[in-house]
Amino acid sequence: MAEHPETTLTQGTPPADTYPRKILEYLEGFLISKTVFTSCELGVFDVLHTAGRPLSAKDVSKAIGASLDGTERLLAACAGLQLLQTHCDDGQVFYSNSDEASIYLIRSSPSSLLQSIQYRSETIYTCWQYLTDAVREGRNQYEKAFGVSSKDLFEALYRCDEEMVKFMQLMNSIWNICGKDVVKAFDLSPFKVICDLGGCSGALAKQCTSVYPECTVTIFDLPRVVRMSREHFVSEADLRINFQQGDFFKDTLPEADLYVLARILHDWTDERCIELLNRVYGACKPGGAVLVVEALLYEDGSGPVTAQLYSLNMLVQTEGKERTAAQYAALMSAAGFTNIQHRLTGKIYDAVLGHKED
Ligand SMILES: C[S@@+](CC[C@H](N)C(=O)[O-])C[C@H]1O[C@@H](n2cnc3c(N)ncnc32)[C@H](O)[C@@H]1O
Fold this sequence. Notes:
Residues about 1-10 have low confidence and may be disordered. The termini are far apart. The chain has 2 domains: about 20-105, Orthogonal Bundle (Arc Repressor Mutant, subunit A), CATH 1.10.10; about 180-355, Rossmann fold (3-Layer(aba) Sandwich), CATH 3.40.50.150. The protein is α/β, with parallel strands linked by helices. α2 packs across α7 (about 115-130), α7 packs across α11 (about 160-185) and α11 packs parallel to α12. It has 16 helices and 10 strands. The structure holds S-adenosylmethionine (SAM). One of its GO terms (molecular function) is O-methyltransferase activity. It comes from Cynoglossus semilaevis (Tongue sole). This is Acetylserotonin O-methyltransferase. It holds the Pfam family Dimerisation. Keywords: Methyltransferase, S-adenosyl-L-methionine, Transferase.
């Protein structure tokens, strides 16, 4: 006898055909992103942090210079999203930051995501308005979104200094959270001379030198990025980290035992990846290696959903895509690397290590 569908449901859960919970949540996912973006832009979490005590909506509205009605709704939504805690006193509601908001959503925290939130809000969100066009055309959408040519990808990404700094802050922010896992995924202690190709402002390099105190890291990046890193990001105190400017597709690469390519290959087509890996192989000392750090897709492409969504983001914003460990291994082995292994970290970014034989 066929089972009655309702008998298999947990009591109180409506059947999927009468209440499409998941789909409704997906359709309105952007409401959540925008609520967080706006709260950060207006400085809600910073105001509550500075106050050091729970505040009413009226206090917050004054401090952020916004309407009382709008602020009340914004704070209520943040409380619903568990980013704020509520305290009732004498019939009035007061708000304070949740533990997570205190760590990640205030400007002065060492693990602040605020600057990366600004890039998501102003740049990525704008690009994603053109996702349909990106899927139809199979290409990034800088021309429509920002009116700039994307013939040179990083000229488009760095279309002005302000945009470049925001991008660099986005790149920086994740390595405070996931950097240690990535550099510890393999024992990198045998590699004393490391080159972080496209290492941006050095956030991952800092994680490397803190885990492996005996190594030195040369960050190789475009001249504009190196200049900006020196002006805005780098403490010259760490003598184990230095910068070299150049184009990794054209210029001589620094000699190293280990080349780190973190979130580099996902920007480029397979052909460009092999071109770059060939150059890395040529520069690498025998016995050396290349460490590719990326958000790996499962081998059958069925997840993780973060990597699947990032791959769409790569379509909208770059010339590349996210790949599986086997796809990265194929690119690395096409360039000559052998003994290629990968390690999952359980967080967003994973590691693939390939060796150059002695
Ligand atoms: C997606 S970001 C990754 C940054 C960093 N590795 C990380 O994971 O945070 C790509 C980096 O490659 C650099 N880059 C792009 N094209 C380059 C080139 N032709 N030569 C050197 N660096 C380049 C960019 O400036 C940027 O810092």
